[in-house]
Design brief:
This protein has 13 helices and 23 strands. It has about 500 residues and is an alpha/beta fold.
Length: about 500
């Protein structure tokens, strides 16, 4: 198959391979004579489109023609533009779709005393301020001997914040780091402070709340003579506690999976993102939880999500989330449609609406049960929306802080980074999977060769259960893990 028309109402199709000028392809009984070359992932007009008329893809308006576009011409940024504005209005038209029947799935995980379930049993060092990042790094490097038995790793998550911050920025740093302390993938946590930072040790302890003192230890570097010696002692105590945890069989309903995309291309909304959507529907049908974020990449496709809010209260929260992000853009003098990225455009994505319609495919068809603020922990099982930007590192950290034990990351161009939670990379095309086999865990490009999206969803569910049971992702094999915290205000 060389060309795909996604929805019956579409007036463009997407090339599944590079198609040369002068080629003729039969699509649904109609011959398309290519007047220009069209690269893989890019769009071709299926009929003449007059200037000012909509370009339709996914059954949605994804652009307006800037000039007359002839049937068989390449459709992209040179002849199509966004139709978005800051003044969209939303109405609630509740839509319910039937979820698939799925056989029971289990995984081998770690049941925590607070009722949560982890898919890893690691020791984490959480610096509360950037000043102690190097101490955390040295402690990590010099204490790898704690990794044995059921203790699967020792990691630190450095960042530049925790001091010289005010208001919402300080609150965001505090919240994200406190949520990481409670993450179920950590069997033990060392909280590392300096002692004089804005995010004071007492303030952070209050934010963390009640903890098991055997699982969470606090070290203020200015309070001890030798922070490396004292830190090493505490890490070994944490490891002794974490070593008591063993994997046991747990139901798939215990899984909380984050979903995002990055380095998207024109196939993202056709292969990988719909495959993740099928996975999400299957996990939700089993009683599990999925989280969708990247609010700016919902702009232009909100209706595809919002009508699936399970009630008006959830719908109102979803609208408020989107409006708040639009205000964030405009308050900084930016238009809401300042997207897609250069890499997205090179991959065939023309406008933000085009990108968004592909992005929200990851949400499948389940009802949306809740809308969460930035880094707010999940409270309800089912599909959740999480406020956060599209930036890969920030949104992956956001998902982890919200409680995602694993993150599914779809990509058409590839990226090596990993979040604190195992980050499973899903390629939109087979060429990327072959070229970057050290990055990609799952190839959804097989959809181009005829594998059904439902089959991809089934296989992805099986793989997630394997990863939850201990199978390492490619990013884990390389030790790639990092965090990034959302920042909006003044640095002192």
């Amino acid at each position: 198959m060389e060309l795909i028309k996604i929805h019956p109402d579409d007036n463009v199709a997407v090339a599944l391979c590079d198609i040369k000028e002068g080629s003729s392809i039969l699509l649904e009984g109609d011959t398309i004579d290519f007047l220009t070359e069209v690269k893989r992932g890019h769009k071709v007009a299926l009929k003449d489109i007059k200037a000012g008329n909509p370009v339709i893809k996914y059954g949605n308006e994804i652009a307006l023609a800037k000039e007359d576009i002839r049937k068989g011409e390449w459709v992209h940024t040179h002849n199509a533009r966004t139709a978005l504005s800051e003044d969209a209005k939303y109405t609630y038209e509740h839509a319910v779709f039937k979820l698939p029947k799925v056989k029971e799935h289990t995984f081998m995980g770690f049941k925590r005393e607070d009722g949560k379930c982890g898919v890893r049993n690691e020791i984490w060092i959480i610096p509360t301020v950037g000043c102690v990042n190097s101490v955390a790094k040295q402690l990590t490097e010099e204490n790898q001997d704690v990794v044995s038995g059921s203790v699967e790793g020792l990691y630190y998550f450095g960042h530049p914040f925790g001091c010289s911050q005010l208001g919402d920025d300080l609150a965001a740093t505090k919240k994200v780091l406190a949520d990481l302390v409670h993450h179920p993938n950590a069997g033990g946590v060392l909280v590392l402070s300096l002692g004089c930072e804005n995010l004071t040790p007492d303030m952070f302890r209050e934010a963390v709340g009640e903890v098991d003192s055997d699982r969470v230890k606090f070290l203020v570097c200015q309070d001890v003579e030798d922070e490396i010696k004292e830190g090493s002692k505490l890490l070994h105590e944490l490891a002794a506690h974490a070593a008591k945890s063993k994997r046991e069989e747990l139901p798939a309903s215990s899984l909380v999976i984050g979903m995002k995309c990055g380095g998207s291309d024109g196939l993202s909304g056709i292969t990988a993102n719909p495959a993740v959507g099928r996975f999400s529907d299957r996990l939700v049908a089993l009683g599990g939880t999925t989280i969708l974020t990247e609010v700016p990449e919902m702009f232009g496709a909100e209706k595809l999500l919002f009508n699936r809010c399970e009630n008006k209260e959830v719908f109102d929260k979803a609208v408020e989330m989107v409006e708040d992000f639009k205000h964030y853009f405009t308050s900084h003098g930016q238009v809401v449609y300042e997207n897609p990225s250069p890499g997205n455009k090179a991959g065939g994505i023309t406008t933000l609406e085009d990108k968004s319609c592909g992005c929200v495919q990851k949400g499948g068809s389940a009802q949306i049960v809740d809308v969460l603020s930035y880094a707010e922990p999940v409270k309800k099982r089912g599909l959740n929306l999480l406020s956060g930007p599209g930036n890969d590192l920030v949104s992956a950290t956001d998902l982890t802080a919200a409680g995602a034990q694993i993150i599914l990351f779809t990509t058409g161009r590839g990226t090596p980074f990993g979040a604190p939670a195992p980050t499973l990379k899903i390629s939109t095309n087979s060429a990327l999977a072959e070229k970057k086999s050290g990055w990609i865990d799952f190839n959804a490009g097989s959809a181009v060769d005829g594998e059904s999206i439902d089959s991809l969803g089934d296989r992805l569910l099986d793989l997630v259960c394997e990863v939850a049971s201990g199978k390492k992702t490619k990013t884990e094999e390389r030790g790639f893990r990092e965090i990034s915290i959302f920042k909006d205000g003044v640095t002192l």
